[in-house]
Fold:
Amino acid sequence: MIKNKNRTMKKWEPYLYILPVIIIVFIVYIYPIINIFRYSFMSIQGENEVFVGLENYRFIKSDYIFWKSLKNNGTLLLVVPIITILALVVTIFLYERVKGWKFYRSVVFLPFILPSVVIGIVFIYILEKNGILNTVLNQVGLGKLALDWLGNPKITIYTLMAVIIWRELGFGVVLILAAMLSLPEEINEAAKLDGANWFQEHVYVTIPQIKPVLSFFIIDEAISMLTGVFGYVYVLTGGGPGFETSVLELYIWKYAFAYKAYGVASAVAVILLLIISIIMIASMKSIKLEQKSATNFNY
Amino acid sequence: MRRKGFSQILLISICVVNLFPIYYIIISAFKSLNEYYKNLFGFPSKPTLANFIQVFNEGDFSIWFRNSVIVTILSVLVITLISSLAAFAISKMNFRGRNLLLRALITLMIIPPVVMIIPLFNLMVKIKLINNFSSVIIIYSGLQAPFSVYLLQSFFGSVDNEILSAASIDGCSTFQIYTKIILPLAKPALITQTIVNGLWVWNELMISLIFLQGNEIRTLMPGLTQFQGRFSVNQPVIMAGALMAILPIFILYLFGQKYFIKGFTTGAIK
Structure:
């Protein structure tokens, strides 16, 4: 710590160092967040801003596309348990140092660093009606399974889920593996000596020790499914067919920048912000409760 | 032993599924359209560079590529500069509001860009920065600042205070401590932060779609989505474009994998 008493540093000096970040964070976060609430009560046309009360919220309430988008974000949350379990299984295998685990780790992580645009484009060619996947399925006599992955409204959202899992699994694996590799090995050894089988060893010994990272990953993925899927949806389906695969992000983008309905889009942005805040507060509470019960246990 | 066999089968199938799309991009990029239709899965029998020549000569791909390079480099420079200054103050100086600032930044990390884009768009219209690189550079820098400050301050914090005291007794000013001691010692953290932010800016779609709309000013990711529409019946050309877009990432990943992994795990492990 550099002491303030030190002749070389004035009392105001620290503030000089944080000033640029404060300014840019104010421009990019604080000013927009304050204004998004204001906009959500306005009708905005060019320079003209008219207060319309709850009009925008009333519009959303009766808008089928809004509810469809919200429902799709909800469906995408199914990704969270699937990807968590899959990531845990893969990570435990890597943690046990199967042959070639470092190579596997690199390959599993690879999709996560690729742009969603490129992933979307490639998967269009793989998944379109006469695409690569269906060509293969037809050739091996499984033509019945050759569905219209991106065009059939009933299955498109699940296709989207599969692509998201394909890309984000590696993030979970790398995250959880980093936590596991920092665990003391003696505890697992002791469990094995006490006769724990493979399943018991990991469910009762390994996983409880990495709980903080696991909850971070679960919360992070949940928030991603609500607010971080624009790229996939925009490229793979554009929200279509119709609005079947629209999500809230796409709704906000479309209403603001294609329909110029800034007020409506802002109201949806406010709702999205509130949903995330609720998740954050709830998860903070659960983490705190856990600590509390831990201390109670100690007494 | 059966479990070992199962784990290998599972991991190998994941590898196949993960690598196939990338394999498909690479082999298709070197095929003629004719061969692409006849030989979908195999290596190109007569590898050709014609697709790459077409990508760079026809249309605006090379402009978009150049734009992405400019935006990525400038954004990363701004983020690194402002974040390292703030991280230095937070980790090595005492001042009122220090903990509050750090906590506020951590909270902001969670808020997604889509919440801010509409007011930001109006702001950029007012100050006439739409279709100007400055708008996205400001927005990218602001969005990534909380993460970068957090990552750098946790690293700076581990620099021994006695070195800093010794330097200040020797007559180093605070700013000299930052440039001559902190920054050189923090090289791994700076590289990690640069890679994560550079990757994020390079791959970003929504913001650049909204703020850079002119063809001359467009970046690569929105460009690629247009490109796909225009050449949608000429897959090899699109794959050549896709390959060019991920080539810089591949090269970095090959040489600096540990920085990628470190960058994406730091926030959570702490």
In short: Chain B is about 75% helix and 0% strand. Chain B touches chain A through 89 residues (CB under 8 Å). Residues 84 and 167 of chain B are 19 Å apart (CA to CA).
